[in-house]
Amino acid sequence: MHVSTRARIIGILTLLIGSLALLPMRARAGECSDVTDKSVCPEPVAYESARGIGLGTGVRATSVSTSALAYSPGALSLGNLYHIEGNIDYIGVGDAVALGGGVVDSSTSQLGAGIGLRGFLSGDGGYDGLDGRLGLGLSLSEAFAIGLAGRYITLTTQETVGDETETNTLAQGFTLDASLRVMPTDGLQIDVAALNFVDLEDAEVPVTIVTSMAFAVIDTFSLGADVLVDLSTFDKAALTVGIEFLAGAAIPLRAGYRGDLARETHAITAGVGYVDAQVGFDIGLRQNVAGDKETRVMAAMRYYVH
């Protein structure tokens, strides 16, 4: 990449990510502010990966490839890879199945990129619509990367009332995510991100600040934790926390915990994968054990071009 071109890209991304500091660190009066029973407030409709679901809240500080597209656009620049993925996702809370795919390339140039799209399929009362994103990431050094992702979502439900079908729009519009990935020492990774910071004013797409940290105890075993702060849904900032572990190389085993403190829902998660030189498979399960008893299951297959 030409020096002046790279300098422009760095300047643009730095300016955009620097704007995260201007986000208010308190919640606005969101659509669930006056709801007494917070558990009935709509859950965020997040763009996720099968790996991340098996790890609770994604263990975002170690996400790469298609998980980076979902959780941390800065990490799109990490590695030297070109991956193509297809996935299927059952979302119990939305009574829907999402079919999707994505492509991530961090080998063609110093600017990593990824694009993904999924479509929701459901029956009466479930989610319908599309959710797509385009992400760019740039490594400024071996220890520091930044990135930005644009997301467009249109999310509706349809209900039959008498002889007529009514369409309710839950969320629609364009928003942005941004992240910083820092690797201060061997084995330790830190990720800070702002999600949906162009506020669509919908509980399904909340303005969220995320801090994630992960540490590799050994090459094949790591621990991580994520803290998500929802700034826009309730009358005060609401926390979701996750604690995760990952073990194994060729057959990774994943487990985690996810707690949405505002909605008082708690989930256990588990996942397994398979990785060789050409393909990768992942399946992740999230099962709520307190609050609503919703289930989410996602499976994905990746082909490694290189």
Features of this protein?
14-stranded antiparallel beta barrel, 306 residues, mainly beta, globular, single chain, 55% strand, Porin
Find the CATH superfamily. monomeric porin ompg
What is the strand content?
Answer: over 45%
* Number of strand elements: 14
How many whole angstroms does the radius of gyration measure?
19 Å
Output the strand order for the largest sheet. 1-2-3-4-5-6-7-8-9-10-11-12-13-14
| CATH class group | Mainly Beta
Largest sheet: 14 strands, antiparallel, barrel
Helix content: under 10%
Total domain units: 1
Q: Residue ranges: pLDDT <50 for 5 or more in a row? A: none
Total DSSP helices: 3
- Find the CATH topology: Porin
Q: How does the overall form come out from the CA principal axes?
A: globular
Would you write up a description of this structure?
This protein has 306 residues and is mainly β. It has a single domain, classed as Porin, CATH 2.40.160.40. Helix content is 9%, strand content 55%. It has a 14-stranded antiparallel barrel. It starts with a helix and ends with a strand. The mean pLDDT is 89.
